[in-house]
Amino acid sequence: MPKLFYRKKLDELEEKARPIHINSYWQLVWVKFRSHKLAMFGAVVLIIVVAFTIFGPLFVEVGYEDMDFSSLFKPPLSQGHPLGTDELGHDVLVRVMYGGRISLFVGFASSVITTLVGTLIGLLSGFYGGLIDRFLMRFVDVMLSIPMFPILLTLTLVFGSGIMNIILVLTVFGWMGVARLVRGLVLSIRETEYVMSARAMGVRSARIILRHVLPNVIPIVIVSATLNMSYAILSESSLSYLGLGIQPPMPSWGNMLQKAMNYILGTATGANPWWLTFFPGFFIFLTVLSVNFLGDGLRDALDPKFVSES
Amino acid sequence: MANTPMVEIHQLKKWFPIKSGFKKKSDLKAVDGVDLHIYRGETLGLVGESGCGKTTIGRTLIKLYQPTGGKFIYRGKGVTGGSIDIFSLNESQMRPFRKEIQMVFQDPYASLNPRITVQDILSEGLRVHSIGKGRDERKEMIAGILEKVGLRPEYMYRYPHEFSGGQRQRIGIARAIVLNPELVICDEPVSALDVSVQAQVINLLEDLKHDFQLTYLFIAHDLAVVKHICDRISVMYLGKIVETAETDELFRNPLHPYTQGLLASIPIPNPHMRKIGKRELVKGDIPSPVDPPDNCRFVKRCPKAFDRCLKEAPRLTETGSGHYVSCFLYE
């Protein structure tokens, strides 16, 4: 075989092929992601929200605990309180910023850990099958049938409340869905002819999992991870309500909503402080929505088959 | 026989256990005592209707399924001591033979991972068996093999979904051939393709066989294809070989009633050539391979069955030179 000839020719051909196929897989993913309008919208909004919660507090002097007793239940746009105040005179804007830090962290961390744990267990269970599968899936059944709330209350008593405990709890009780999902996918991928072909060539199991199984599982896992994140942000609020997790005066979007529930029919004076529910609710909505768009775009961009219409 | 066969398969069995509720455990006997031999450089066809166990044989030979019983004596070029039983090897001993024995799969859509490029698909085997030093050398080998199978070298940068069924099958063939194997198991490599493309792929397989000195086990159900490409043919029915002969001999002088029915079922394009009323087709469906009775497997559909066929199972016996049949009519 005339080797030099081939090498030169190949380089030329690769150059030609580039406009369609770019350099690497990840460049291709980026190009496709960029052309996905909703995903870009989601990404931009998410970056703004994150920046708002991280850098926002640096520009205000009021802390989330500071109470202004002269102005209770002030509506938005009143003097010194752009988003109004709550029943203790806390500034809603400041609390939304600090609360966002916690909600986003809890949501992101627990969704990432949940997805990692679930995917790992699903992969092992689906790929190896047999005893491993039976053991892991019965473990999933057991975990699913444990009543969560009594355990939570006990845990609170033993370990106290805190962000890390919330993440831990959401992970420990949250990975089973992902594990089942992934296992199901792996069961079907394992029997495909391309996996058989890899086995027939003597490719080791670990490499088959990484190279052939995982890339075909990831798109669906990403979508489930984004859904998981929304779920985590919302369940943080119900956990806070039960006393495990974020305790006042420290705010989170969830417990701000939870607290505002008391005034949903109006305060004692008859006024209706709608801004107490609207602003944290709006930020939860915005975050969850953009994360879902982001996940959608990521799934499409990772799929070589998917070419956007534009 | 003048020369010893490169592959000798003795009494190959593959049973799949079936556990169902309270019933006693039963076995699906997909392959139940198959004898085959393949000579170096020939193409052995393995034909039979759907569900007769052809694909299971192919997959068991490369240990995608663990064999239930039998021997797979292999006399490849690199085998020390002349011959070896592949089934007696463990996975790490098996490794060198995973390069020598390759497989081409049936479904060109399911047999290529949609998420990696053709280059990655083809280089995987090279990497596993440490063929070629570094990325560049492997790239050249891949470009070379793509040209051999009739694809442009720059296609290596594409993903499988950008190709047609025929092109995908060529990629699947390239993946097998790039390792420079001795024996290629073709599992219905053209049955999923258009007829016009089938011919191209068949010709490609013949060219490659010549260029790379390959030996084929060609699994198929299309008799026209098999007649064209195979030197010898084994006819399979419900997990057993019923007849083996050279291609010409089998088509001229089919002995087993099943083979006769199978050959009669080939459509004849020219209406003047048809002998009206003389076609005796095989009637009925293939029976269940779950715990089959110990008699001739074909007895329920056989037009020539007699008492003995119900009581015992015939053995594969040689009737003429190289013509084996498993039927009491010829004992």
Taking the sheet with the most strands of chain B, its summary is: 8 strands, mixed
Q: List low-confidence stretches of chain B.
A: none
**Shape label of chain A:** flat
Structural class of chain B: alpha/beta
Distance between the termini of chain B: 21 Å
The level of helicity of chain B is 25-40%
State the fourth-level CATH superfamily of chain B. P-loop containing nucleotide triphosphate hydrolases
Unreliable residue stretches of chain A:
none
Mean pLDDT of chain A: 83
CATH architecture classification name of chain B? 3-Layer(aba) Sandwich
Structural class determined from secondary elements of chain A? mainly alpha
Q: Say what oligomer this is.
A: heterodimer
Question: Mind summarizing the main beta sheet of chain A?
Answer: none
List the helices and strands of chain A in order.
HHHHHHHHHHHH
| Helical segment count of chain B | 10
- At the fold tier of CATH, the topology name of the domain at 83-284 in chain A is MetI-like fold
List the helices and strands of chain B in order.
Answer: EEEHEEHEHHHEHEHEEHHHEE
Strand order of the largest sheet of chain B: 6-7-8-3-9-10-12-11
Write the layout of secondary structure elements.
The complex is a heterodimer of chains A (310) and B (331).
Chain A: H1 3-21, H2 25-34, H3 37-55, H4 92-128, H5 130-145, H6 148-159, H7 163-172, H8 175-190, H9 193-200, H10 205-242, H11 253-260, H12 275-302
Helix pairs in contact in A: 2-12, 3-4, 3-12, 4-5, 4-7, 4-8, 4-10, 4-12, 8-10, 9-10, 10-11, 10-12, 11-12
Chain B: E1 7-18, E2 26-38, E3 43-47, H1 54-61, E4 69-74, E5 84-85, H2 91-100, E6 101-104, H3 118-128, H4 134-148, H5 165-177, E7 183-187, H6 195-212, E8 215-220, H7 223-229, E9 232-237, E10 240-246, H8 247-252, H9 257-264, H10 307-311, E11 317-320, E12 323-325
Parallel strand pairs in B: 3-8, 3-9, 6-7, 7-8
Antiparallel strand pairs in B: 1-2, 1-4, 4-5, 9-10, 10-12, 11-12
Helix pairs in contact in B: 3-5, 4-5, 5-6
